[in-house]
Amino acid sequence: MIKPNVQLLLTGNELMTGDIVDSNSAMIAQQFKELGLEISRKVTIADDLSLLIKEINQLATAADILIINGGLGPTIDDLTAQALAKSTNVELEQHPEALTHLTAWCKTRGAELNTPNLKQTMLPQHCNIIANRQGSAVGFKVNHLDCDIYCTPGVPRELKVMLTEQIAPNIAKQLPKELITDVTRLQVFGLGESTLQKMLDEQLSDWPKNIELGFRAGMPLLEVKLTTSSIDAHKQKPIWQEKLSKVLGDHVIAQITQKPLTLAKHVLNQLAQHELQITTAESCTGGLIASMLTREAGASAFFEAGFVTYSNKMKTKLLDVPAQLLLDKGAVSKEVVVSMAEGALAHSSADLAIAVSGIAGPEGGSEDKPVGTVWIAWGRKNDIKSICLLMPLTRSYFQHYVASIGLDLIRRELINSQETPHYIIERQRE
């Protein structure tokens, strides 16, 4: 079975001058890879009508599927619709579905429906609309020279939604089953790519070649992908996914089925399931844990208050950490961080707490407590656990990693995990 030939045409003066760095082609290529298809050719051109027409005709002659990215906006240099109309020998006309969309979009934002905006509703006759729930310009599809041409916006967030929700599913329906690629994604926290690869080399050295294993690094979550492109591999994958999950243990946060969730959202979901509330007491992270939680809609049901106590004075005033304890043990100590957690619980109606106190750097360290030292306390009333880790990272990365570890420790508490996470094994200070 011959796979469809997929080609890509990017348009925009900003791409040619370097004012915009092209990330869209990578997004498109990744989306098509998950369908088992590859981009055979990519062309980038300036906003020039004659060039556009020429390239559209050349690419459509060779391709079965052509993605045109960019040129759907309201300005004079947005030429995709005009170029498609001329290439296919049809007129531009105001598309009622595009007009309805644009009218609603403007009304929602209190914007004027002006003449430049209306340009986005002038599309080639008989084209099919591709909805855009993120922006003002709809996409559209035409067939030219037996090639399906999908016209998409240049704004990455708009393109992403259009690809994942409409274009990719539409193309997948047309592909024979034996050509369809199946991708399973797992969210993982606390393991780097090299560590994860080492674990697999040692424990799953017989991994089958027809199940492609890939990693996508991210902060804080790593994505592990299992990709199959044959019926036999599809059948084998559940067996090997189970083996992989046993190796990774509770480092696996979830299997991604739709839009990936943040680590904070996973924690909030667990809190909702157990009908519990959480509070935070932060020093070195400066409120970042609370911020990560409250970015999520609905957080107020499970997060009532957090405390940012950067100075020793505020640790005493807001969290009742004894001043003498701070003098005797120092702010970065087990005793103080446990007292911070207890104080946060006492001054809120929460059931669980996360408390952190550390040395983010680049200054402030000592021989006993070097830069990167952090104490983390977490748990419930009368059951506060604590750990000291050493993470000599840049200040920003240190803060984000500490905040993420705090959330992960609460997640593990809520799922009753008995495992010791790799970041404790690797970074614990005695």
- How far apart are the first and last residues' alpha carbons, in Å? 60 Å
Q: Using only CA atoms, what is the Rg?
A: 27 Å
| Number of separate structural domains | 3
CATH homologous superfamily assignment of the largest domain: MoaB/Mog-like domain
CATH topology of the largest domain: Molybdenum Cofactor Biosythetic Enzyme, Chain A
Could you say what the CATH architecture of the largest domain is? 3-Layer(aba) Sandwich
Name of the CATH class of the largest domain: Alpha Beta
Helix content range: 40-55%
Largest beta sheet: what is the strand line-up? 2-1-3-8-7-6
Structural summary, described in words:
With 430 residues, the protein is an alpha/beta fold. The protein folds into 3 domains: 6-177, MoaB/Mog-like domain (Molybdenum Cofactor Biosythetic Enzyme, Chain A), CATH 3.40.980.10; 181-256, Alpha-Beta Plaits (2-Layer Sandwich); 263-427, Maf protein (Alpha-Beta Complex), CATH 3.90.950.20. 41% of the residues lie in helices and 23% in strands. The chain has helices at 13-17, 24-33, 49-62, 80-87, 96-109, 115-118, 156-174, 193-203, 231-248, 263-274, 288-294, 312-319, 323-329, 334-346, 395-414, 422-427, and strands at 6-11, 39-45, 65-69, 92-94, 122-124, 128-130, 139-144, 147-152, 182-188, 211-216, 222-228, 252-256, 278-282, 303-308, 352-358, 373-380, 383-390. The protein has a 6-stranded mixed β-sheet with strand order 2-1-3-8-7-6, with helices on both faces. Strands 14-13-15-16-17 form a 5-stranded mixed β-sheet, sandwiched between helices. It has a 4-stranded antiparallel β-sheet with strand order 10-11-9-12. It starts with 5 loop residues before the first strand and ends with a helix.
